[in-house]
């Protein structure tokens, strides 16, 4: 079976859908292939932050900004040895375009709260889509449908076809049939990161890290492998965001507010709801998301929380990362539990001590986890009762806490070299949070690209007909800090789609 389109896009996350809408609005025929049963990718799992400069929202608050200042501030997030590997020119060009991308998204009906501050940004630049990142996916998918683009789910791309050193087609499997799809103008790789791509992690980061899972289990690096197989150069493949500790997702699925985001409401009604959404409701939605996806703050461990495995043993130095996360991945079912005593429960019950956060949007304290995540939060007046409620196998928990307190009280050497000023966990209230696992959140490696998003070979020459955007086409950029990855996904998609204007076609709204 054969089909033909102007442009074929691999992946229906944020960047792929943005590119599809951009290209289709300029008259190109577009096919988007998504291996999962529904679109979304890692973008659809996020809170939805978009960090940009010179935006309408900044202007309304009287904030003067520039892409030059933003570029300088963006360089302050990553450690110096990581930032030194950044593609400075490409990131600067991207940041110049963020305001235009946000206007483009708002013209489609998306609405944003903010801007919110996030140091070391000198002024507020973080905007948050209302009510959450699923709004990007819903809006772009609906727009693509109105433009006549084709989105095919459960379609796995297997390989690219090159003729005369040009990528001209690809093969994909759908419902048991292998299809050859011709791309007259180009193939765009937008298949997300490789946070759960074990072979890529092992190759570029080391065997120990291959035990760590990706927060998005479907992010297996498909686009990276396609780019490399076509002769593309991959950059910064050993740079990852994480591993970091996150609680497992709830088995019962989405909360009611998160579920409401996925409803296919009429466009006009969805826009009206977005405009009228009060900030208190938005913060409530954000809080549901952050107790599902966000990581416990490092301060919790610095203040004395203990990590236990399923048997109740302490197995690592809680303040030594990434060895801590690697140790978690070696435990039974790759799981750990976080134990808090009464003093910590009280300390993390209100500002400024929170367990997790969506910065400047919402904060989650002990009571929030007890209320919103009863599947992972158990409170008790005794360790024995706590053990019985969680798992009979955690039989060592009492002995572990006794040994911990004794080592502190006796000023003896901690078996994991933990600082001796940590408070002993004494008190008549206990809170056990978990299971938690070590995850890669995202990855910073991607194909080398030029300003037209062509994938480049090792010698710097472009592979004709092959493009990469989003996490597939980071091009050596370091995008640490909230909101830069989604801003790049949307911006790279919008700009890449402009490469495929059909001759004589006029833009469609």
Q: The biggest beta sheet, please?
A: 8 strands, mixed
Mean pLDDT across every amino acid position: 88
* Shape estimate: globular
- For the CA atoms, what is the radius of gyration? 24 Å
Q: Count of DSSP E strands?
A: 23
| Helix content bin | 25-40%
Structural class by helix and strand composition: alpha+beta
- CA distance, first residue to last residue: 33 Å
Strand percent estimate: 15-25%
Query: What are the segments in which pLDDT stays under 50 over at least 5 consecutive residues?
Result: 253-274, 417-422
Q: How many helices?
A: 19
What do these coordinates show?
With 509 residues, the protein is of the alpha+beta class. 33% of the residues lie in helices and 22% in strands. Strands 1, 2, 6, 7, 8, 9, 22 and 23 form an eight-stranded mixed beta sheet that branches. Strands 10, 13, 14, 15, 18 and 19 form a six-stranded mixed beta sheet that branches. A hairpin with a 2-residue loop joins strand 7 and strand 8. Helix 1 runs parallel beside helix 7 (134-146), helix 1 (14-25) runs parallel beside helix 19 and helix 3 (67-74) crosses helix 5. The longest helix has 15 residues, at 279-293. The radius of gyration is 24 Å and the shape is globular. Mean pLDDT is 88; it is low at 253-274 and 417-422.
Offer a few descriptive terms.
509 residues; alpha+beta; 8-stranded mixed β-sheet; 6-stranded mixed β-sheet; 19 helices; 22% strand; globular
Provide a concise account of the structure shown.
By secondary structure, the protein is of the alpha+beta class.
């Amino acid at each position: 079976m054969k089909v033909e389109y102007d442009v074929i896009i691999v992946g229906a996350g944020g960047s792929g859908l943005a590119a599809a809408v951009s290209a289709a609005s300029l008259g190109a025929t577009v096919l988007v292939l998504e291996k999962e049963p529904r679109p979304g990718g890692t973008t659809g799992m996020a809170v939805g932050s978009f960090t940009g400069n010179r935006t309408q929202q900044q202007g309304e608050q009287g904030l003067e900004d520039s892409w030059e200042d933003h570029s300088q501030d963006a360089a302050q997030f990553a450690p110096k040895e990581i930032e030194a590997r950044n593609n400075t020119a490409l990131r600067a060009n991207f940041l110049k375009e963020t305001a235009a991308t946000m206007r483009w998204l708002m013209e489609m009906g998306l609405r944003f709260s903010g801007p919110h501050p996030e140091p070391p940004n000198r002024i507020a630049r973080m905007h948050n889509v209302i009510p959450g990142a699923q709004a990007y996916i819903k809006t772009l998918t609906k727009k693509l449908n109105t433009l006549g683009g084709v989105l095919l789910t459960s379609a796995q791309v297997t390989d690219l076809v090159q003729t005369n050193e040009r990528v001209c087609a690809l093969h994909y499997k759908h419902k048991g049939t292998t299809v050859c799809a011709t791309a007259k103008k180009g193939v765009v790789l937008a298949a997300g990161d490789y946070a759960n791509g074990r072979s890529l992690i092992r190759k570029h980061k080391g065997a120990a890290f291959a035990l760590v899972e990706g927060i998005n289990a479907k992010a297996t690096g498909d686009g990276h492998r396609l780019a490399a197989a076509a002769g593309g150069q991959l950059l910064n493949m050993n740079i990852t965001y994480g591993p970091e500790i996150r609680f497992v997702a709830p088995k019962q699925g989405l909360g009611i507010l998160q579920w409401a985001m996925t409803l296919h409401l009429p466009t006009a009604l969805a826009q009206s709801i977005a405009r009228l959404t009060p900030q208190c409701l938005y913060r409530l939605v954000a809080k549901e998301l952050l107790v599902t996806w966000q990581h416990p703050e490092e301060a919790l461990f610095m203040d004395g929380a203990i990590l236990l495995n399923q048997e109740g043993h302490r197995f690592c130095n809680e303040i030594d990362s990434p060895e801590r996360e690697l140790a978690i991945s070696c435990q039974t079912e790759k799981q750990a539990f976080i134990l808090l005593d009464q003093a910590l429960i009280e300390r993390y019950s209100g500002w400024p001590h929170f367990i997790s956060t969506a910065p400047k949007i919402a904060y989650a304290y002990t009571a929030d986890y007890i209320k919103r995540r009863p599947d992972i939060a158990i409170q008790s007046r005794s360790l024995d009762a706590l053990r019985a409620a969680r798992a009979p196998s955690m039989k060592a928990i009492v002995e572990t806490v006794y040994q911990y307190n004794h080592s502190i009280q006796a000023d003896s050497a901690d078996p994991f070299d933990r600082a001796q000023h940590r408070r002993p966990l004494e008190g008549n209230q206990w809170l056990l949070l978990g299971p938690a696992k070590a995850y890669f959140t995202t990855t910073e490696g991607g194909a080398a690209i030029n300003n037209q998003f062509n994938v480049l070979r090792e010698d710097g020459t472009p592979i004709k007909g092959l493009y990469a955007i989003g996490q597939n086409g980071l091009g050596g950029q370091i995008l640490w800090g909230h909101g830069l990855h989604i801003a790049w996904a949307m911006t790279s998609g919008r700009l890449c789609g402009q490469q495929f204007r059909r001759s004589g076609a006029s833009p469609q709204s």
